[in-house]
Amino acid sequence: MACKQLSKEDVLYMAHHVFLPPKLPTKGDAEPTQDGALADAALRSLRLFSSTTTQSAVQTAITMMENMTSVHEVGASYAVREDSLRNALQQLSKSREGKSADVIC
Fold first, then answer.
1. CA distance 10 to 30
2. Cβ distance 33 to 75 under 8 Å?
């Protein structure tokens, strides 16, 4: 996976959302593109961490982050892509039951 170059704004956004800021925010500051960069950075970190351990919890977290980033539009909104959500739910169903299950949408 190629490493995406993070902007200064992305890094500052991550610092303020990963670590407790010295002062709590007084207004919403959510930005879809920066949330996407934060999710991508978390996923890359999980993948790097998984190579150093055999814990299944790490793989579960990686799968969850992959599903989340594949389902949401990265960019100007927090929109959910219907087809991607349906596919993620079908994959989740297969992995939990060992067989395919119909997803009603």
1. 12
2. yes
pTM flag (> 0.90): no
What's the domain range around 87? 54-94
Going by C-beta distance under 8 Å and a sequence separation of 6 or more, which residues neighbour residue 72?
36, 78, 79, 80, 81
* Torsion over CA: 69, 70, 72, 73 (sign): positive
Return the amino acid letter for 93. S
> Could you give the CA distance from residue 65 to residue 74 in angstroms, rounded to a whole number?
13
Binned at pLDDT 50, 70 and 90, residue 64 comes out as confident
| Residue 34, in any domain of the structure | no
Classify residue 21: in a domain, yes or no.
no
Q: What is the total count of domains within the chain?
A: 1
